[in-house]
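Forwarding these from the shared drive since the link keeps breaking.
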Amino acid sequence: MKPASNWSVLLGAAFLMATSAVGPGFLTQTTVFTQSLGASFGFVILASIIIDIGVQLNIWRVIAVAEKRAQDIANAVLPGLGTFISLLIVVGGLAFNIGNVAGAGLGLQVLLGISAEWGAILSAGLAIGIFLGKEAGKVMDLFAQILGILMILLILYVVLTAHPPVEEAFVKSFAPDKFDLTAIITLVGGTVGGYITFAGGHRLLDAGLKGTAALSQVKISAISGITVASLIRILLFLASLGVVTQGLLIDATNPPASVFALAAGNFGYKLFGVVMFAAAITSVIGSAYTSVSFIKSFHPVVPRHENKVIIGFIVVSTFIFISIGKPVTLLILAGALNGFILPITLSTILMAAYRKNVVGTYRQPIWLTIFGILIVIVMAGMSLYVFWSQWQNLLQD
């Protein structure tokens, strides 16, 4: 693979992961948590970024060295485990994709004045068009990069108009006044939970970038993806914080749209339409591509007709949205599910890193393994705590 081609693939995988993480739920969660936690939400973002780094570096490296997709690695660790993980990820990916399609429809509704349903249909048509050609992978990479950069620039403009207290946000990122475990689980689950953490790793594998010789490039791609996703979240946090600290009332029915409108008027509202559409359509593509990559090992017919299966995934997601409307509850449940999936998938990858039948003579850096184990323990503990708290609340109600 030529160096120029290498950079295209590395950036493509990075932006595919980042834009998969930055969906409609991402925009809403960041705004809502900023409203409730204020500048202290910066600490949650910092914690989620640190966890993201440990997760991505472990998973992407093992996938590259093993030269296998995550489900095949899991099956090598324990027969049947890969199938179980695939089922969890595909179900979660479908749930998220329904919300992604809904978000794309909402974005076009703001921009064009059409119904969210018609917006969803047009968005699905665009996503499907990407997978109709023979060079779908390259088109997908370029599409994710262009829209990812566009989102950064537009949100940066809103930050500048919102005038957030940057110094306060920085200080409270390290010394928060408030702390919320649910916020951390939701953010981590939405950034590296479920299918998202494997989006870039599987893309690099499909593009032929694999083996121990490619580890330095894999590291660059993984860190680039985390940087892009983190930058977008930080900018959105600052934009929301600027609005909140001015005492302006955020509309609970559509928090991110309200932030854009309050910060930059009607023009800001239109910018929200662009950002929402860009965030949602890239997530539709990333979710469909990665979810289908988890069933490619099930039957030879899937890899032979991969693009058609991806198109089918998008069609089903769109049909469900049009049939039942925007699935807010489903989106929340999918986020929680991703938070639970992460300890399972990461612990599986950590075990695989020390199995010769998976990675051969490769040795995983011990600091990275310890980092990964700590994340598994912390995420599993927090997930169980949040689940128990929610269960207790449900019993009391």
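-- next protein --
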Amino acid sequence: MSTQHQEPDERAGNPHAPGHGALDGLRIADFSRVLAGPYATMLLADLGADVIKVERPGTGDDTRAWHPPADQDGISTYFLSVNRNKRSVVLDLTEETGRARARDLIARSDVLVENFRPGTMERLGLGHEELLERHPELIYCSISGFGSGAGAAIPGYDLLVQAVGGLMSVTGQAHGEPVKAGVALVDVITGLHASLGILAALRHRDATGRGQLVEVNLLTSLLSAMVNQASAFAVAGVVPERMGNAHPSIAPYETLPTADRPIALAVGNDRQFAALCEAVGKPGLAQDGRFRTNADRVAHREELRDILTRRLGAASADHWSAVLLAAGVPAGPVNTLDDAFAFAHKLGLPGIVDIPGATADSGEGAPSRQVAHPITLSGTPAQYRLPPPGLGRHTAEILDGPLDGSDDASG
């Protein structure tokens, strides 16, 4: 079993090895595919973990075929979005030879991540009970759609969970049809929960020497992420409904039209509302009995919306954004994604990064453009070592030699 305490010189000269990241020395056997699991393991890889992506022969991760769009080499941008800093090996888990090689890889790893349908890993002889008995230090992270009990047979697709988990019931216009989020948000949230669970289990292992099973599922991850909406039901029995871009508890907290495109107003207190009224040339509005407090504004939101819409229609969203932000009012235009990256760049925030000198298939060529890791660490920042790998690119390197390019460090 690999440990987290390898000395840096054990990996000297190995271009695939993590440098000095917060998770340097941590090895993850990643049997997951599509989004939730790969997103979790990419975040950990960015922070220094050595992630070995185990893929099936021929097709590999499902998302390799999910295009358009694709990059200049014809590689799915969906796959590219969650698989950097990983090495890919191909194993046929339907054959004993493949399973034996998988067990060897697991024996030399700290963490296993999988998101097969519940029961699949057990049928392959790779279930958590068997592996934790054999390797008590292993962290075994299992990601499912609806848990390993009564919901085990339900396929775990993000759209399905958004529907049955209530998110679509609060997304969309009040009198329109339910709408899904524009990205697979539940998968992303579940991936975050998985990475958090893994780190918590590693902290426990540091203290006790014992690994454990970490289980996360899409449904309860969504219910937790519904925060105030879920709390409204749990505490007060309120079943929320669709309100478009309005907020059930705050006003004005929504998008409103301007002369050219919508602007978002996120007015969270009375001081900000007074500043808004001053900025749009209606200073007396803050003292109007209908709008004096937030509760008043929520009760009269339609009247307030009509007044603000008339004022905001006199100029562009960019004009009002500049005026309102200068007045201390949280506001901004509804950007397209290119505008959003440009905005981040303007603010000096990381948006897009390049992994130089490599492409996913050849290992050499033009830089691979990637969306930046979202966490900033002052001492051990995120690293961009490897582009998303070509299918099975590292199979021989990993399975026929030491995992870290030096003498095997398994214990």
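The CA atoms of residues 322 and 351 lie 22 Å apart. Residues 8-225+347-399 form a domain with the Rossmann fold fold (CATH 3.40.50.10540).

- D.
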